[in-house]
Design brief:
Blueprint lengths: L17 H27 L3 H40 L7 H128 L5 H15 L4 H4 L17 H6 L1 H19 L12 E7 L5 E6 L5 E6 L4 E5 L7 E6 L6 E6 L5 E6 L3 E6 L5 E6 L5 E7 L4 E6 L3 E6 L5 E6 L4 E6 L7 E5 L3 E5 L8 E4 L4 E6 L5 E6 L4 E6 L4 E7 L12 E2 L5 E5 L5 E5 L5 E2 L9 E6 L6 E5 L3 E6 L2
Antiparallel strand pairs: 1-28, 2-3, 3-4, 4-5, 6-7, 7-8, 8-9, 10-11, 11-12, 12-13, 14-15, 15-16, 16-17, 18-19, 19-20, 20-21, 22-23, 23-24, 24-25, 26-27, 27-28
Length: 603
């Protein structure tokens, strides 16, 4: 076995560049020494016990050899005495003396046999000990081989998955390139057609202005004015004179250059003259749609100071709580496989209006759509289920996940659902058809989701590997990622849509993320804060506070403007797993793991 001394002389300098000389002189010798020492350690370690046993056995062997030599010497001496007695009968020994001498010789022979057998016994015991050690080493090697086989199978599965994803990405890339080319052609044609329409519009307005000036001059000459009815008739007559020039754009059902959205069901002149009205109607529609997506909010949010109602709602552990968008309904879920609906119109009093059944395992997450018609839930039986809020029968069931579903969210005006699971995938579902639209491999267990845009072009997920990932539902890969201080258990989006709150388990901190800057701008923590595996944090409706429960039953609230902690009385005796403000901000609900939730007010 090769021994390498630490002070071994370095190899001769290589007449190469200076950097290679430094590498050869300083780096490689130390690298070789470390590799040789590691090899010696690996080869010597299994035989240390054998070397020790060999040394001990060798010492015993020398002792036995010395003893055997002494016994041989005594035996030879006694044999010589016996021979002398037999050869010299004149000594007149008695028959008993001769018998005694014979017995002495037999005793010596038996002692020699005993010593030989004892030595063999020691050798067999040493061999048995070596065999036992070898069996232990064999078992350890078999265990390591089994672990390597399992790890190899996992890597094979991941390789297969990544190969499929890569193939799908290549196909998607080709399809998107073709679509991009078609869209570009249509866009160019549309721009050309729009330019033609604008030119005609400018020409029309120019002629209208000329006619208006002409009639104003004519009326001034006659000292008479044109009535509004006459002016309208003039515009109509002018439009009728220009209609033949725009005939290609006035045919019902035709489209300009094949561009979408340029159909000719109404005349170009009508669209031009009514442009301001259509823009105002479109703005009102957009405002109405945005209002329907926003939760009800009125006034500043309270800081919970006093418990007004304690409700023991479930028969097992509680996991989550959710309010409807209008704040008239609240839902709770837990390990007892059911979801309970509560009327919240008379807070702090609550009425249990319905119990939703159908899950085969504990319910981890719930969400209510923006019209308060449907509720979606993800459970530990790897399923996503949809109910009508006023009906306890499952309306639809979405199957496809291979493990626990930790989080679900509505998006795209409640027409679609996104779910995150322990199987390291995100799945997008169509509410109406119940089909799985897309499956995204997220590379880590997903604990929570937040939808940053209703169209699904910006979804954020938090994961076991301490990363936030941002997704576009049209892509299979994340647009970008953020690495935080620990395993992320929850995310919550502020009502303004500019900030994200994240709870981290390992370091027990709350991170405030600015979505415009894509970075953490504040960190909230406390010595008593203990964030569990499924602890969920929450923003207040006005965005001024962030709340989070702790494993010791405390509730921590921080002011996002002053970054100071607000005092909240401790009333829970078990871990607080979820907190939520009422959409009006005038009530606060905290859920503890042991079957109960509390309703708070600010006074």
């Amino acid at each position: 076995m090769v021994e390498v001394e630490d002070d071994e002389a370095p190899p001769p300098r290589d007449p190469g560049p200076q950097s290679w000389q430094i590498l050869y002189r300083d780096v490689w010798p130390s690298r070789f020494r470390s590799l040789l020492k590691e090899r010696d350690k690996t080869e010597q370690e299994p035989f240390k016990d054998i070397f020790g046993s060999f040394a001990s056995l060798y010492t015993q062997l020398e002792q036995y050899r010395a003893k055997i030599t002494m016994l041989d010497y005594e035996r030879l001496k006694r044999q010589e005495d016996i021979n002398n007695v037999i050869n010299n009968p004149s000594n007149n020994l008695s028959e008993n003396d001769l018998r005694y001498l014979g017995l002495q010789e037999e005793i010596i022979q038996l002692q020699t046999s005993k010593d030989s057998m004892q030595q063999d016994l020691y050798k067999m015991a040493a061999k048995a000990k070596d065999v036992a050690k070898k069996e232990i080493q064999i078992m350890e090697l078999e265990r390591r081989v089994q672990l390597l086989v399992e790890e190899n199978e996992t890597l094979k599965d991941e390789h297969t998955t990544m190969s499929l994803i890569l193939k799908k990405s290549d196909e998607e890339k080709k399809r998107m390139a073709m679509e991009n080319g078609n869209i570009l052609e249509k866009l160019l044609q549309q721009k050309k057609d729009e330019a033609d329409v604008v030119n005609m519009h400018n020409e029309t307005m120019k002629k209208l202005k000329e006619h208006q000036i002409f009639y104003e001059l004519e009326s001034a000459r006659r000292e008479d004015s044109i009535s509004p009815e006459q002016s309208l008739a003039l515009s109509s007559s002018l439009a009728s004179t220009l209609t033949p020039r725009l005939g290609a754009y006035n045919n019902p059902g035709s489209s300009v250059g094949g561009a979408p959205g340029m159909g000719g069901r109404s005349s170009i002149l009508s669209r031009l003259f009514r442009k301001s009205e259509s823009e105002s109607d479109e703005g009102a529609s957009r405002h109405s749609s945005a209002s329907s997506r926003c939760r009800l909010y009125s006034g500043p949010s309270i800081i919970p100071k006093e418990v007004q109602n304690k409700v023991e709602s479930h028969t097992s552990e509680l996991y989550s709580v959710a309010f409807s968008y209008q704040g008239t309904t609240m839902a709770t879920c837990g390990a007892d496989k059911c979801i309970k609906m509560w009327r919240t119109t008379n807070l702090p009093s609550l009425d249990n209006t319905n119990t939703l059944l159908g899950c085969n395992a504990g319910v981890m997450s719930i969400d209510i759509d923006e019209r308060d018609h449907y509720l979606v839930a993800g459970s530990n039986d790897a399923a996503v289920r949809l109910w009508q809020v006023n009906n306890s029968v499952v309306k639809n069931q979405f199957m496809g996940h291979d493990n626990k579903v930790y989080t679900v969210k509505f998006y795209n005006h409640s027409q679609r659902i996104v779910s995150g699971s322990h199987d390291r995938t995100l799945r997008l579902w169509d509410v109406r058809s119940g089909k799985n639209i897309r499956t995204i491999f997220a590379r880590s267990s997903c604990h929570d989701l937040a939808v940053l845009s209703e169209q699904g072009t910006n979804i954020v997920s938090c994961h076991f590997d301490k990363r936030l990932r941002f997704w576009d539902e049209r892509q299979d890969t994340s647009s970008h990622e953020m690495l935080l201080d620990g395993r992320i258990t929850s995310v919550d989006l502020s009502l303004c849509g500019k900030f994200l709150a994240c709870s981290c388990k390992d370091s027990s901190v709350i991170k405030l993320i600015d979505l415009k800057l894509n970075q953490a701008i504040a960190t909230f923590t406390h010595d008593g804060l203990r964030i569990g595996e499924h602890t969920r944090c929450a923003f207040s409706p006005d965005g001024q506070y962030i709340a989070c429960g702790s494993g010791d039953g405390s509730i921590f609230i921080w002011n996002t403007r002053t970054l100071k902690r607000e005092e909240v009385p401790k009333v829970h005796t078990n871990a607080v797993v979820a907190v939520k403000w009422h959409p009006l901000g005038q009530a606060f609900v905290s859920v503890e793991k042991s079957k109960k939730f509390f309703v708070w007010t600010g006074f």
